[in-house]
Amino acid sequence: MKPSAASAAIMLTVMLLVAPTVGATMTDAQRRAVLGEALDAYDRGVAVVRTNPSVARAAFRDAAERFELLVDDGLVNGPLLYNLGNARLQAGDLGGAVLAYRWAERHMPSDPRLQTNLM
What we know:
mainly alpha; Serine Threonine Protein Phosphatase 5, Tetratricopeptide repeat; flat; 6 helices
């Protein structure tokens, strides 16, 4: 069963709150805001993927960039990297998607959704 965007957002928010902040430059509030922007951008892409693929790809690129901001800030966990992989894949960046999925695999090696995406 595919988790809803709401459950993914809740899971990522929890991960944001418990993530180490050594070397981090964003506050928890900033991280939550960036995460919200990333999820909103991804949802915008999903909403128009069939009717306007070029706009969808741009939204997915925006989502990937926002997820990358969190990674660059030191937040590294399986769900975030999985979402980064999904955004990159939908944006047309297959190599970047595989890289993110492989990195996510280190944090959640038995996740069936991740394994499906790597097939």
